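The authors assume throughout that readers already know how a fold can be written as discrete tokens. What matters is that the chain and its backbone geometry are given together, residue for residue. A single example would do more here than another paragraph of explanation. For illustration, here is how one protein appears when written out as sequence plus structure tokens.
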Amino acid sequence: MREQSEVRSSSPYRDDPGAIRALFDDDRVHRDVYLDEALFELECERLFARSWVYVGHESQVPKSGDFITTSIAGQPLVMVRQADGSVRVLLNRCAHKGAMLVSAPSGNVGKFFRCPYHAWTYRTDGKPLAVPLRAGYEGTRLEACESSRGLESVSTSTYRGFVFARLARDGVAFEAYFGDVLKVLDNLADRSPAGELRVAGGVFRSVMNCNWKMYVENVVDAVHPISTHESAWQTARDMSQTWEHDEPKPVALEQLLPFGSSYDFYQQAGARVFAHGHCILGTQSSIHTGQGLPPGYREALAAAHGESRAAEILAFAPQNSMLFPTLAIKSTPQTMRVIRPLAVNRTLVEIFALEPIGAPAEMLQRTLSYNRLVFSPMSVVAHDDIQVFETMQAALAARGNPWVSLHREHRSDEKQDAPVDVSGNNEILMRNLFRSWVELMQRRPDGSSERAREHCNELA
């Protein structure tokens, strides 16, 4: 593998916006977007820095001082509950020597962070608290240096319990970035009679040897289930034939049988694309439509939200909602997938169950069942997708046609404005992702690293 500096210096994409634009040709995309190491470096610097990326859920840090750690495009982050009840996201890096402040996946730091290396301490909002041997810094340039300012805070926005961060100092505001697709989160939270969710039941993690965009595209691809997951739905169909018509079928069969839905089914299911790469697959119906509800649940929703709102909530059961670039939501079952890019050919996917507070316990059990069946590393469904992703990652490097087709239902006068309603089979959902990808990749970073270098030169 080439050294990172060599990748950067030899890349044709870093200083040529035209080269990046040429990778997406309106109805096809060049294979370099999945294979090129330099492009992945640029994604980390530009796309993931300038977009609003999901970090965690408020329910994961219920008490003051509670934290979780994660990373976005190689940047280590800590999400921590403040004494006033708010949630902040900070760079998980001491301002002194750069040591990681907390390395556990979760925990409680009390009232302050204490660096394990030299014991510099910081308030939970990142402000500096104490420095050992303080007298030794008198007369030095510490006070004029970034190291004296504490931990670097990241732009943070919380919506219905979902916490997002933007690494860059400037960029599109949160509400403008997501727009109407935030109604997906409203619907999800309102499936709780209390209007609140919590992460429950642990997390499944799968590392795949493929580019992260392959997984994102697959989230909104309605054409692959009938062929890719044929072994799963055919087995479920064969098993269902052994049940009597008046005998309740197991939840597992109810959840697996719809994977055999026809192309015509998805054509009618509908989809909607939004600005900034977001989209919903299954606006009219999906494989989750009409699945059973626990006794008393509908009545509890109606009592909490009113009959009209309860009916609206339950009528919305899309296949998947994609909050670009890394958050995939299923409204029912209440499932959340977080896509975390690790390298150009390596992706971590985390699968969480969301429990609607105040709803029957069966709701969470159905979600946990679905996650085990469909998304766990030993799933009868997910291993089909992973096999395709990993072989595609290898095969795309082969000689021959360098373009990947996104032509299905493309029209030369395709509207670029969003939102747009289309059929569930339309590959505009993927084309929309890449339009946003090109836009974010052409933007230069906010210049913070350049300013830091200039400031250090001034101090010198």
Q: What stands out?
A: The first helix runs from residue 4 to 10. The radius of gyration is 24 Å.
